[in-house]
Amino acid sequence: MVPLFSDAGLRRLDEIVGPDLLCVFDFDGTLAPIVPQPDKAILPQEVLQRLSALAAHVPLAILTGRSVADIRSRVAFEPNYIIGNHGSEGMPGWHVNSDDYRKLCRTWKEVLSQALGDKQRFGPATWIEDKGFSLTVHYRAAPESELVKKNLSALFAQAIPAARVIEGKCIFNLLPPNAPHKGDALEKLMEISGARHAIYVGDDVTDEDAFQLRRQDIMTVRVEYFAGSAAEFYLPHWPDIVGFLDELIRRLQELQPSGV
Ligand SMILES: O=P(O)(O)OC[C@H]1O[C@H](O[C@H]2O[C@H](CO)[C@@H](O)[C@H](O)[C@H]2O)[C@H](O)[C@@H](O)[C@@H]1O
């Protein structure tokens, strides 16, 4: 991974930024800073203003682990696409397996809710976020978080072996097997939007499915350095997203004929 604001990063932007660009952003940790309680996450004004400005030039998508309804309630503008549950909710044309995902998640939730009653193993504050098509188990507030994390991994393997388990920031995401992931969703978004280039920005493990695409026509950016990431570039800290959005807007404005 190379810093985005480097010679290599700026050269890559020269290749990618044009009127045929699609901009795709993850939500938590990318557009919104991480906060201890998920229901308190907000899209800051300085990000909202820039996203609205960007949307005047190119199509924009939010591709998130949250549900679509959750994102709608947090984003005071209408991006071209909101795709939820890591790619399995909200994609035009991808409704085929929705009922199966819901059914499976309901069953998992029942099994896990019962198991989490064992406070000795899982702590008093471990809880399940039900997003319909996938579940997230949060253990951020657990007093002995490393032990709780280990116990949770063992529980998932034993009680819901079919789940695709993806670690995140003090969470485990539980996805139905074979459900589309963020890489699948990003490729589908390019197809349906007709974009010839895309930029994908994310910050967490589920974003690796998109980073791993490694396509010449998709530039990938991670918020915060992580040695094992497949992303091409990184922004050192969350607030750097603002400068990155400014850079995109400036470049797109320069492409417009003068006087527009
Ligand atoms: O794909 P994303 O949009 O990044 O969603 C990933 C998960 O984000 C949320 O959890 C994370 O953010 C919370 C609020 O800042 C934080 O409290 C939590 O510890 C983070 O892991 C969301 O709650 C999950 O459903 C998403 O899967």
UniProtKB/TrEMBL annotation:
<protein>
    <recommendedName>
        <fullName>Trehalose 6-phosphate phosphatase</fullName>
        <ecNumber>3.1.3.12</ecNumber>
    </recommendedName>
</protein>
<keyword id="KW-0378">Hydrolase</keyword>
<dbReference type="InterPro" id="IPR044651">
    <property type="entry name" value="OTSB-like"/>
</dbReference>
<keyword id="KW-0479">Metal-binding</keyword>
<dbReference type="GO" id="GO:0004805">
    <property type="term" value="F:trehalose-phosphatase activity"/>
</dbReference>
<dbReference type="InterPro" id="IPR036412">
    <property type="entry name" value="HAD-like_sf"/>
</dbReference>
<comment type="function">
    <text>Removes the phosphate from trehalose 6-phosphate to produce free trehalose.</text>
</comment>
<dbReference type="InterPro" id="IPR006379">
    <property type="entry name" value="HAD-SF_hydro_IIB"/>
</dbReference>
<comment type="pathway">
    <text>Glycan biosynthesis; trehalose biosynthesis.</text>
</comment>
<comment type="similarity">
    <text>Belongs to the trehalose phosphatase family.</text>
</comment>
<keyword id="KW-0460">Magnesium</keyword>
<dbReference type="Pfam" id="PF02358">
    <property type="entry name" value="Trehalose_PPase"/>
</dbReference>
<dbReference type="InterPro" id="IPR003337">
    <property type="entry name" value="Trehalose_PPase"/>
</dbReference>
<dbReference type="InterPro" id="IPR023214">
    <property type="entry name" value="HAD_sf"/>
</dbReference>
